[in-house]
Amino acid sequence: MNPMDLRGLVPAPVTAFTADGEVDHTANAGLARWLVSVEGVKGLVCLGHAGEGTYLTAEEQVALIGTLVEAVDGRVPIIAGITGEGTKTAALEARRAADAGAVGALVYPSHGWLRFGFQPGAPQERYRAIHEESGLQCILFQYPDATKATYDLQTQLDIAAQPGVVATKNGVRNMRRWDTEIPVLRERFPDLQILTCHDEYLLHTMFDVDGALVGYGGLAPEPLVEFIAAGKAKDYPTAREIHDRLLPVTKAVYHRGSHMEGTVALKLGLVARGVLEDATVRQPLRPLSDGAAAEIELALKQAGLV
User: Fold this and answer.
1) Which member of 62, 167, 265, 279 has the greatest number of CB atoms within 10 A?
2) Do 214 and 51 contact (CB within 8 A), yes or no?
């Protein structure tokens, strides 16, 4: 297995819909081609939170993967979010993704764990089953510390040691845990690619990572590629300047009532940038309040993105 090289920006783009709510394959292909035209973009993740993946039918998920694979034409790997609740259903979901042309799997925790927690060993078995069934290269997804689906350090280490696990997407959103656990992962598994997914906490996390796997990358890939480069160079002044330049956009997209509203805001931002024509979302997501589109467009202007 040649591991995916994700050392850079890995956007998790939105899923574009037509005005009547159907998956817009032409628009999704165009969005993918735009993103991979940015030097430093190393992969695309579909069917995640930003991509409304759990709101698509299984048939729509497979068709979208195929559209993205064709659009990028081998320039970067397509990575599918794997969200099935049970281990068997998740493994079969991963096999469908592989058959459609995906190379990687962003493995979500079983979402019952968000409320009830997980039994020891269950996450490890989930990753094993997915990789063995599909052959997909897996990304360990660390959920926020505020949830019961966040993995303790030993569980992370166990998963990182398993065949097929090539990276971790860490969104723990607890900087004490970040500062103490990331160095251990780095020391124990030097080849494990560490990716931040802290869309709203990028400055703190950017100096410890190989790259960023963020929905934000689907809206502002150009400055985020620069941000990652500054972090790798330990160039704090440049990183701070990019952070501050993007702060109006960060606030307009992610500092909302619910983090889920970020998906709606990302679509409005892409319309403002002229990349998408429509910002339609699927329920349970809802359109943002009147004035949100103008607010997001103004933020993008302040950041020099429109």
Assistant:
1) 167
2) no
Tens-of-pLDDT digits for all 306 residues of the chain?
A: 799 999 999 999 999 999 999 999 999 999 999 999 999 999 999 999 999 999 999 999 999 999 999 999 999 999 999 999 999 999 999 999 999 999 999 999 999 999 999 999 999 999 999 999 999 999 999 999 999 999 999 999 999 999 999 999 999 999 999 999 999 999 999 999 999 999 989 999 999 999 999 999 999 999 999 999 999 999 999 999 999 999 999 999 999 988 889 999 999 999 999 999 999 999 999 999 999 999 999 999 999 999
Helices (H), 18-105: 25-36, 58-72, 87-99
d(CA 140, CA 159): 7
- How many whole angstroms separate alpha carbon 252 and alpha carbon 302? 11
Helix (H) or strand (E) holding 127: helix 122-134
Overall pTM surpassing 0.85 (yes/no): yes
